[in-house]
Each structure stands twice: as structure tokens, then as C-alpha cells.
Design a protein that fits this description.
Length: 212
């Protein structure tokens, strides 16, 4: 009887251990799947807009405005762009807003800062160590000169290069200070959430200057 109880206990421990190991993989897979869906929706919208533009040109008409469905997709909490950083192998959708719901599966744009590709300081923030994906976990591995690619909802591509990085206090709002020049600021947690890691990027004047 004692051996039977022991075998049952061991079996329970094994099953529990397997379940605990499987949970992180599930969240990562689910998070990546949700991220991919957002990117696919965004890219499809860009393609649809391009098709509409070409059709309008062929018919000699002015470009039509976005449909209500497309406008809803690209507004509020939905995707407004895509960020790609080859040096740390990430590609994520950018959502408008930086609340928990917006950055759960995407990189968030702080609404009070300049828009994507606009003059001023555009601040994007992402998780460090999220179970749903990599996001900005490896942001501290970037070096001066590394390239950051932003595609906005008009399909325009903006290329930046890392100028410098720093670590600041979590309530240091100077990171959102605006500028007369175009700046891209990438922000994530550091030191187990007690600090913030900041990566400041400046635009590459000509996209052709960037090696493909």
C-alpha cells in the first residue's frame, strides 16, 4: 500500500513538473501568434490601400479615403505601424497608447509624444521579460549605429540609427521631452523594474544610405 501511494505521489510530481515547464512555452506561443495576427492585419491594410490608389490612378480619379473598417483598424488601440530592429532580431506591431492592453502583444506609442516619422520626440515603449514575447528585452544590446526601421500606416518607411543609450529613474519624465528635431526614443524596464533603459535614435537622412 505504501509503495502504491509513493508511486502515485511520484506520478503527480512528474505531471505537475511537466505542466509547469509547459506554461511558459504556451504563453510565448500564444503571444507570438497574437503579434503575427496584428502584423498580418496591418500589412493587409497597406496592400489594400495601395491597390485602391492604383485603381484610382487608372480610372483618373482622386485617391479614396480609408473605409470605416480600415479606419477603425488603424485608430485607437489598433496597429499604427511596425518596428523592426535587425540587430536584436525583432519585428513587432506598434499600437497607439502604452497601457497594459496596448503593449500586451505590441510595442506602444506614447500618445503625448510626436507621431511616427514626425518632427519631435516619438517615444515607443515595450516590455522587458514578458512571457508573451521578446519585445524590448534585448534593447540594451544595441550599439551606436544600429538601425531601427519604422513603417507607418501610410506605408512610409523611416530609418533611424542608435545615437546613445542610458539608464534613468522610472519617474524621470524628461524622456518624453519634445524637440525641434526628429528623434525616436525606445524605452523599456531595467534592473527588475527599478530603472528604465532608454535608447535614443536619430533619423538616417536618406533611406538609400542604409545597406539592404
Amino acid at each position: 500500500m505504501e509503495k502504491k501511494i509513493r508511486r502515485i505521489f511520484v506520478s503527480i510530481c512528474i505531471v505537475t513538473g511537466i505542466a509547469l515547464l509547459a506554461v511558459p512555452f504556451y504563453y510565448h506561443f500564444h503571444g507570438q501568434n497574437e503579434t503575427d495576427k496584428l502584423i498580418e492585419q496591418f500589412e493587409k491594410t497597406l496592400e489594400d490601400n495601395e491597390d485602391e490608389t492604383e485603381e484610382s490612378k487608372e480610372e483618373g480619379k482622386e485617391q479614396t479615403s480609408l473605409s470605416e473598417e480600415d479606419a477603425a483598424l488603424l485608430s485607437g488601440e489598433d496597429v499604427i505601424g511596425i518596428i523592426e530592429i535587425e540587430a536584436i532580431d525583432i519585428r513587432y506591431p506598434i499600437s497607439e497608447g502604452a497601457g497594459n492592453s496596448q503593449i500586451r502583444y505590441a510595442i506602444g506609442h506614447m500618445t503625448e509624444t510626436a507621431g511616427l516619422g514626425e518632427k519631435g520626440n516619438c517615444v515607443l515603449c515595450g516590455h522587458n521579460g514578458s512571457r508573451n514575447g521578446t519585445f524590448f528585452t534585448n534593447l540594451n544590446q544595441l550599439s551606436a549605429g544600429d538601425k531601427v526601421k519604422i513603417t507607418d500606416k501610410r506605408g512610409e518607411v523611416h530609418i533611424y540609427e542608435v545615437a546613445d543609450t542610458s539608464v534613468i529613474d522610472p519617474y524621470d519624465n524628461t524622456v518624453k521631452n519634445q524637440s525641434d528635431e526628429e528623434i525616436l526614443t525606445l524605452l523599456t524596464c531595467a534592473n527588475k523594474g527599478t530603472k528604465r533603459f532608454v535608447c535614443r535614435c536619430i533619423p538616417v537622412k536618406e533611406a538609400g544610405d542604409v545597406d539592404e
